[in-house]
Amino acid sequence: MNEAESAGLSVGSTGKFPTKVIKNFDQPWRTISMDPAYPGQEPSVCDTLALAAQYRDAAVKLGAISPKLAHLPVHLLALHSVELYLDALLLAKGLDHKTIRGFQHDLGEQSRVAIDAGLVLRKRTAAHLATLSSTREYDAVRYGPRQAFKLSQVNRVMATLDEVSQKVRRVLRPVP
């Protein structure tokens, strides 16, 4: 038994870092593995698209349940979904994960690179993505709820999400 095992840790999926494993012995299927490796290190295009769709669905459902009370969470889910759709496109076009992480939630720059890679967006949508970046809306939604009065309208963010999701999926659709 090595030092990590004696501390209740096991070697993680990377083989280098310990992973803390929490086991519920009454319900063994609920074993939780907490790997300290960078989350989302090497996701595939399909995984990223699936995650983007889940965030999109969550934003739509939350907005339908309680539009007034869920203003900031819907905003956050929608913006993250847009970012993931753009990530998937850029991954498919050959950008590496390190470059994509380097955008640091800059949807304006990310969308500019995606447009250069072949994504066709309406002028209004491209302008909205640039505005989201210049006003640091992603950060305001995540960290500064006092700045909520400066945010885009939720219906505008959802329209941007709808267009980005449709057009990214269209670009990435396999040719029959």
Structure description:
- With 176 residues, this protein is mainly alpha-helical.
- The protein has 2 domains: 3-34, no CATH class; 45-172.
- Helix content is 57%, strand content 6%.
- It has a 3-stranded antiparallel sheet with strand order 1-2-3.
- Helix 3 packs parallel to helix 8 (154-172).
- Mean pLDDT is 77; it is low at 2-22 and 29-37.
User: Which range does the strand content fall in?
Assistant: 5-15%
pLDDT < 50 stretches = 2-22, 29-37
Shape: globular
Mean pLDDT: 77
Helix content range: 55-70%
- Count of extended strands: 3
Strand order of the largest sheet: 1-2-3
Question: What is the SS-derived class?
Answer: mainly alpha
Count of helical regions: 8
Major beta sheet summary: 3 strands, antiparallel
Number of structurally distinct domains: 2
Give Rg in angstroms: 19 Å
Amino-to-carboxy terminus distance: 54 Å
The succession of helices and strands, N to C, reads: HEEEHHHHHHH
Summarize the structure in short.
The protein has 176 residues and is mostly helical. The protein has helices spanning 3-6, 45-65, 71-92, 97-101, 107-116, 123-134, 137-143, 154-172, and strands at 9-11, 18-22, 32-34.
Structural descriptors:
single chain, 176 residues, mainly alpha, three-stranded antiparallel β-sheet, 57% helix, globular, disordered N terminus
